[in-house]
Amino acid sequence: MSALIETRALTRVDERRQVTLLEPTDFTLNSADRVSITGSSGSGKSVFLRALALLDAPTSGQILWNDQPVANADIPHYRSHISYLSQRPALLEGTVQDNLRFPFSLKTLRKRRFDQQAVTTLLGHAGKTADFLHKNAGDLSGGEAQVVALIRTLQLNPEVLLLDEPTAALDPTCSRDVEALIDAWFAGDNSRAFIWVSHDLDQAQRMSAIHLQMSAGVLSAVAQP
């Protein structure tokens, strides 16, 4: 089992308010890990996930990817393998297919091609047919938009998914569609891993084998029942 991501004494401090958001955190995410993190609002869950995604620079400490520190020049490459999904994703104007094709116009992905068959298979896991590709993104429900954002990420075959309460604003049916997509992605390759920040204890237990808790910026293990 190999370590995909490792943090060493990772911290985040709000310099303006001089408040510690994340206490020094040592953490290892291995291949095939399914991790959930629960905790109260403001406890540091999203802070930790955004630091792992290198969306917010850590104040101190280190992030290792495949046993190597991530240099600034390597951050775009890192983000093409370590994908962050927020609770309220942003979609572009146009159709669902326009949104799914968009990543392939980016410099880091120009050598790759949009695969409609692979996307159609992913849609099927979420109970959608190929006709869904032609829907206008502006007409989608919150749950449908989240499914599109997730497929936009999954089609790129990330190594790691960092899921920041992706179903918090969704009804139970849409939540299960998102869970089904994650399950299908994870089952397809045992070198993958994910971290799922959730406010829902039942979901955390259902979707993970490793349950962690965040409290006042401190990450700790939760005993499994």
Could you walk me through the main structural features you see in this protein, from its secondary elements to its overall organization?
The chain has seven helices and ten strands. It is α/β, with parallel strands linked by helices. The chain has a domain of 152 residues: P-loop containing nucleotide triphosphate hydrolases (Rossmann fold). A six-stranded mixed β-sheet has the order 6-7-8-3-9-10, with helices on both faces. A four-stranded antiparallel β-sheet has the order 2-1-4-5, covered by helices on one side. Helix 5 runs parallel beside helix 6. The longest helix has 16 residues. It is globular, with a radius of gyration of 17 Å. 37% of the residues are buried.
Q: In a nutshell, what does this entry contain?
A:
This protein has helices at 45-52, 75-79, 96-101, 116-125, 142-154, 172-187, 201-207; strands at residues 3-14, 19-30, 34-38, 60-65, 68-69, 82-85, 160-164, 193-197, 210-215, 218-221.
Describe the SSE topology.
Layout: E1 3-14, E2 19-30, E3 34-38, H1 45-52, E4 60-65, E5 68-69, H2 75-79, E6 82-85, H3 96-101, H4 116-125, H5 142-154, E7 160-164, H6 172-187, E8 193-197, H7 201-207, E9 210-215, E10 218-221
Parallel strand pairs: 3-8, 3-9, 6-7, 7-8
Antiparallel strand pairs: 1-2, 1-4, 4-5, 9-10
Helix pairs in contact: 5-6
Q: Averaging pLDDT over every residue, what do you get?
A: 91
What share of residues is helical?
Answer: 25-40%
Which residue ranges are poorly predicted, with pLDDT under 50 across at least 5 consecutive positions?
none
- The CATH superfamily of the domain at 3-91 and 159-221 bears the name P-loop containing nucleotide triphosphate hydrolases
Number of strands: 10
Q: How much strand content do the residues show?
A: 25-35%
Strand order of the largest sheet: 6-7-8-3-9-10
Classify the secondary structure makeup into a structural class. Answer: alpha/beta
Number of helical stretches of at least 4 residues: 7
Please outline the major beta sheet: 6 strands, mixed
What sort of overall outline do the alpha carbons produce when their principal axes are compared?
globular
Order of helices and strands: EEEHEEHEHHHEHEHEE
The top level CATH class name of the domain at 3-91 and 159-221: Alpha Beta
- CATH-level-2 architecture of the domain at 3-91 and 159-221: 3-Layer(aba) Sandwich
Rg, Å, rounded: 17 Å
Rounded to the nearest angstrom, the distance between the terminal CA atoms is 24 Å
Q: CATH fold name of the domain at 3-91 and 159-221, please?
A: Rossmann fold
